[in-house]
Amino acid sequence: MTFGVRFVFFLQAFCLLTIHTHGQKKEDATAEEVKIEVLHVPKECKPKSKKGDLLNAHYDGYLAGDGSKFYCSRTQNEGHPKWFVLGVGQVIKGLDIAMTNMCPGEKRKVTIPPSLAYGKEGYVKTI
């Protein structure tokens, strides 16, 4: 199955561990293409996520066109959140952008264009 449409992700960052990085570059203007709606910010908002941080997050993926769910981290991997290093390409570029400057426990709704997800042709999962 291929998806050449915008993705909508609901993100919840549960844990944030800082890994020190040096020589970080500023993100390019692609951040403007990711639409971010903050749904919840906890009272305590330190530290905020940055490139090189190790994140632990649950997220749900929906197709923006018809709202159908294509991924849920709570039903995959025995319900464990996904661990990844932010900004190094371990997740799609749109998630790297969308999860930058998040607080631990913050919830966001983000819309990611195909160019920052799986592209025009989409992602084909082979079984």
Describe it.
The chain has 127 residues and is mainly beta. It has a domain at 35-116: Chitinase A, domain 3. It is built from one helix and six strands, in the order βββββαβ. Strands 1, 2, 3, 4, 5 and 6 form a six-stranded antiparallel β-sheet that branches. Strand 3 and strand 4 form a beta hairpin. The chain is globular and about 40 Å long. It starts with 6 loop residues before the first strand and ends in a 15-residue tail after the last strand. Mean pLDDT is 77; it is low at 1-5 and 14-29. Pfam families: FKBP_C.
Structural class: mainly beta
The H/E string reads EEEEEHE
Describe the sheet with the most strands. Answer: 6 strands, antiparallel
Number of strands: 6
Radius of gyration: 14 Å
Q: Note the overall shape.
A: globular
The CATH architecture of the domain at 35-116 is: Roll
CATH topology (level 3) name of the domain at 35-116: Chitinase A, domain 3
- What is the mean predicted local confidence, pLDDT? 77
Q: For the record, give the distance between the C-alpha atoms at the N and C termini, rounded to a whole number.
A: 11 Å
**Discrete helix count:** 1
Organism: Terrapene triunguis
Protein name: peptidylprolyl isomerase
Keywords: Glycoprotein, Isomerase, Repeat, Rotamase, Signal
Catalytic activity: [protein]-peptidylproline (omega=180) = [protein]-peptidylproline (omega=0)
